[in-house]
Amino acid sequence: MARDHELFEAARCGESSARVYQWDRTWVTLGRFQNPSETLVNPDDLNWTVRETGGAAVLHGHDLTLGVAVPVLGAAGVREVYRKLVMPIVLALQDLGLDAVLGEEAGFADRREGAYCFLGKSQNDVVSARTGQKLCGCALRVTREAALLQASIPIHEPSVRAELVIQDSGADLWTELDATQLARFLTVRLEELT
């Protein structure tokens, strides 16, 4: 998360950048407004950290994660900034053959609120057009100078079930994907953005 913070700070100085990475073991990132004692089943028995962005808790270790930071120019609205930053993810998933779209395009948005990112879907989430399954969890932070999008794409079954570490999390979702191929497609699409 410190490296994503560095991306965000660089964007405040006018530099666009992105990184795609994986976690070496199971971690949970909390949205910047979440309380660990209210969100996690047992915070003392878990690797966790707080993200720069908001949103709900995300289980890592079975995902491909990315941070994208860009300067915010002019009077761009939050929705416009989000769309700009999330589209490389949608396109990279489409490059892999998935039917990825934003929730509003597929009519799959249930707006359930909860402590776990993958519990519900909104019109802004990346979902499967056919099934409505959430394919990617995204959180955004926008200031007057810069925007940071942090995203998690579950690419295989987690080694720890979310319901064992995140309160009220429910079932785990993932799509079996090749991490190397997805990272390559994401890198190409992100280069077009940054």
Describe the structure.
- The chain is α+β, with helices and mostly antiparallel strands and 194 residues long.
- It has a single domain (2-193), classed as BirA Bifunctional Protein, domain 2, CATH 3.30.930.
- It is 27% helix and 25% strand.
- The chain has five helices and nine strands, in the order αββαβββαβαβββα.
- The chain has helices spanning 2-12, 36-39, 78-95, 103-106, 179-193; strands at residues 17-21, 27-30, 48-50, 58-60, 63-71, 100-102, 126-128, 134-142, 146-154.
- The strands form two sheets. The chain has a six-stranded antiparallel beta sheet with strand order 1-5-9-8-7-6, sandwiched between helices. Strands 3-2-4 form a three-stranded mixed beta sheet, with no helix packed on it.
- Strand 2, helix 2 and strand 3 (48-50) form a beta-alpha-beta unit.
- Helix 3 (78-95) crosses helix 5.
- The longest helix is centred in the middle third of the chain and has 18 residues, at 78-95.
- The protein is globular and about 45 Å long.
- 39% of the residues are buried.
- The mean pLDDT is 92.
Could you name the key traits of this structure?
about 25% strand; six-stranded antiparallel β-sheet; single chain; 5 helices; globular; alpha+beta; about 190 residues; three-stranded mixed β-sheet
By DSSP, the count of extended strands is 9
Helix content: 25-40%
Question: Helix and strand succession?
Answer: HEEHEEEHEHEEEH
CATH homologous group name: Bira Bifunctional Protein, Domain 2
The main sheet comes to:
6 strands, antiparallel
> How many domains?
1
Overall pLDDT score:
92
Strands side by side in the biggest sheet: 1-5-9-8-7-6
What global shape is seen?
Answer: globular
Enumerate how many helices there are, as a single number.
5
How far apart are the termini? 20 Å
Report the portion of residues in β strands: 15-25%
